[in-house]
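Running this now, will post back.
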Amino acid sequence: MKTAAELRCAVNHFVSLDLMEQSMIIGPNDLCPCGSGKEFQHCCANKLSADVHRAKLDDAMGEIRELLEGRSFSSLEEANAFLSAYTQERNRAPRDNFDGLSSEQMHRFLHFPFDTPDLASFPSRLDITPEAPILKLFSLLVEALGDQGVKSTSTGNLPRNLCRDIAMAYMGEEKYREIYRFGELRSEPEFFDLHVTRLVSGLSGFIRKYKGKFIVSGECRKLMNKHGLAGIYPKLFRDFATRYNWAFRDHWQPVPLIQQSFLFSLYLLKRLGTEWQSNRYYEDWFLRAFPAVLQEVSPVGEYFSPEKILRSCYSLRCLDSFAGFLGLVEIQRDSDKRYGDFHLKRLPLLDHVVCFHM
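Update: finished.
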């Protein structure tokens, strides 16, 4: 018989998989569950001696010691099987910091958001005609390109006059004149929402370059003719969520977990977004779920702490530039400033874009 004291090496093996209170069984090439955005082998797997990880390790070891107290096993294999079953049970238990999701479910959300149909499903065609800022710009762009396409500039962007026409139609003349009161719109990147729409449309294969021209692809025309924007939106959504780089807009530090956890953010909006909430409310949830991500953010100067930077990046990238731009939430700003605090609540489109099954 092996006693609990004699099984310490087996215990250590399983406890090391429970870093940062996320007992996920992961491989060396998987992203680390601590929220750093790095592969496990380059993150917590090599940091078990660090104080922050040691504290978590000691807590987990204490829990395992209590579990093994008074038990005996005939072999290490039997002990491993017992601990494996215990780890799996913990993985499947709801967690308050994940708003009721288990560690196992969160692992699937982070690593396989579009390949876990028992948790969340995404229709390939919507059953309503969607409305969203990105779709309004997409429609204006497709109309402007027409059947013949439009020649790109020497820098590879849309022509200036075309961008001005779309901006005027999108914003209205009064708002356009207010935004560009100090000078006309001079290039596509200066109208960043259009710039992003064109880039994501390219990733989706709807807008492409051919012989120096921007053209509307045959796939796009086929989908538009058959299903309209209801057929276009799911592809734009998926590529915006997974392929477009959310950090491109603000040039702050990357923090890949903000984008990687998009499904968790939508889950929160689904559950909590029926009433108006401050963006800080959702920032708090993100930090509660992934506290270790703060270690991956460096302070900037005296006034920008890691937490302040992370909060700003989360609100701008996830809540505003993702959920807001794709028509999943309505946003009311507390001031005229783009980067100030705001309130938001979910829109009906969210229920048609993703269906949660928990």
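Confidence is low (pLDDT under 50) at residues 12-25. More later if anyone needs it.
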